[in-house]
Write a structure and sequence with these properties.
Blueprint lengths: L15 H23 L3 H29 L5 H24 L6 H28 L21
Bound molecules: fe (ii) ion.
Fe (ii) ion binds next to α3 and α4.
Length: 154
C-alpha cells in the first residue's frame, strides 16, 4: 500500500538530523492512516498513535527551538508562535479523540497532513539556509536517537 504522505525532496530541509525527525512525524501520520483503513481495534490504536504524535511533536519543536536559540535565529519569535499554534491545534484534537468525542476521520487525516507538510515546506524551509550558514552539518554518520524510543507501542 502506498503511503498517505510520501516523503520527497520538497519536504526535506536538507539537514539530516531534522529530516529524520520530520520523517518520524510523517511516519506517525501514515501509521494513523493505515490503522484507520486496515487495522483492527481502530479507536484504541488511533488513540495510541495520536498520543505519540503529540509527544513527539512537543519534543521535535523543542529541538528546533533550542537550535534557534543557540544560533540566534532572527525569526525565533515568529517560528515559535507557529509552533505554539500547531501544538495547541493538535492537542485540542487529541483531547477530543481521547475522550471519544471525535473520531479519526479522513477529514482529520487530511488536516494532519496539511498541518505537518505546510509547516515544514513553508516555515521550516526558512531556517535551513540560516542554520547551514552557521555551520550545522547537513548529515551525520552516527546513529540517531530518532525512532529509538518511539516504537508505536508494539
Ligand atoms: Fe518548525
Amino acid at each position: 500500500m502506498s503511503n498517505f504522505i510520501d516523503w520527497s525532496d520538497k519536504i526535506s530541509v536538507g539537514i539530516q538530523e531534522l529530516d529524520e525527525q520530520h520523517k518520524h512525524l510523517v511516519a506517525l501520520i501514515n501509521r494513523l492512516f493505515e490503522a484507520m483503513t486496515e487495522g483492527e481495534n481502530k479507536a484504541a490504536v488511533a488513540k495510541e498513535i495520536m498520543n505519540e504524535l503529540i509527544q513527539y511533536t512537543v519534543i521535535h519543536f523543542a529541538v528546533e527551538e533550542s537550535l534557534f536559540r543557540i544560533f540566534e535565529y532572527p525569526d525565533y519569535d515568529d517560528h515559535c508562535r507557529h509552533h505554539q499554534e500547531l501544538r495547541a491545534q493538535v492537542m485540542e484534537i487529541n483531547k477530543k479523540v481521547q475522550s471519544g468525542e471525535r473520531m479519526v476521520t479522513p477529514e482529520l487525516l487530511f488536516f494532519l497532513k496539511k498541518w505537518i507538510t505546510n509547516h515544514i515546506m513553508v516555515e521550516d524551509q526558512k531556517y535551513a539556509p540560516f542554520l547551514l550558514k552557521k555551520g550545522v552539518k547537513r548529515s551525520w554518520v552516527k546513529d540517531s536517537w530518532v525512532g529509538k524510543f518511539w516504537s508505536f507501542g508494539h
